[in-house]
Amino acid sequence: MSGRVKAVILGGLLSGILGVFLALLQSGLMSVHPAFRFIQYICCIPAILGGAVAAVVHIKSSKVGLSKGQGAITGVISGVVMFLGLLLIAFPGQILIAVIRFDGFENYLLMLRYSATSMIIHFVIQLVLEVVFCFGFGCLGGLLCTVILENRQ
Fold first, then answer.
1. Which of 19, 20, 82, 123 could be 46's S-S partner, Cβ–Cβ 3.0 to 4.6 Å?
2. pTM
């Protein structure tokens, strides 16, 4: 397995696990108490951390120096892995939490029937924002880590 693949998998898994945890925590706890609103302000940390971890692992496993572009690309690909984790785990988990919050699946379906268009629009907007968020902050983490840590020519 090449250094970049190992780095991307490790960084993406780390950021994906943290991102899923924060997304589920946010959707479950923000309805309980408004003091948990701080979670929405730290949601970029998993993507930056994942990109940075991927860049560090890539730098350590590479025999030659990495350019800033290579570090940024490693971070972006790590963001892709994070996005897939959010798409496959966090979105269904958020729907499950909404079902529990609406006291059962029948009430959730009734709510969806009256606001299906707004739910679809909300899902599409959330999907686009997650893509920008994961790719952008993953790129930022990889780029920053490469600029700070890579000193080989």
1. 19
2. 0.78
